[in-house]
Design brief:
mainly beta; globular; 9 strands; 0% helix; two-stranded parallel sheet
Length: 119
């Protein structure tokens, strides 16, 4: 996971010059309301979040495009791999592998704290 101390603040003035293309779902960790702190200065959203480190449980997990079990799989995550938690909605966690993505939804029960034994 990328260390948040490595992010540099944007240099120069930030300009709202019109609509900005949004990346496709499942790519960069950005939504209309929230983005990974590593995207500050590149994309404008009301809130930026520092990812909270989590690990995928031993059985692995599917990262989904939406918080819906029938949603398209963005990436299959191996047990023990890192996941940067950015938001929680109900039984789902939204996050990313890092500021460059991919991003998506994982069931909360498939995450544990980084120091927790995943075996």
């Amino acid at each position: 996971m990328t260390d948040t101390a490595a992010f540099e603040p944007p240099k120069g003035p930030l300009v709202l010059s019109g609509p900005q293309d949004r990346p496709a779902p499942g790519t960069l960790p950005i939504r209309g309301d929230l983005a990974h702190i590593g995207l500050a200065g590149k994309y404008f959203v009301p809130h930026y979040a520092v990812p909270q480190p989590r690990q995928i449980v031993a059985g692995g997990a599917a990262m989904l495009e939406k918080a819906d079990p029938a949603s398209e799989v963005v990436k299959q995550l191996d047990g023990g791999s890192e996941f940067g938690l950015l938001d929680i909605e109900g039984d789902w966690a939204w996050g990313a592998l890092d500021a460059k993505g991919p991003s998506g939804w994982v069931r909360l029960e498939q995450l544990c704290t980084k120091d927790h034994d995943t075996k």
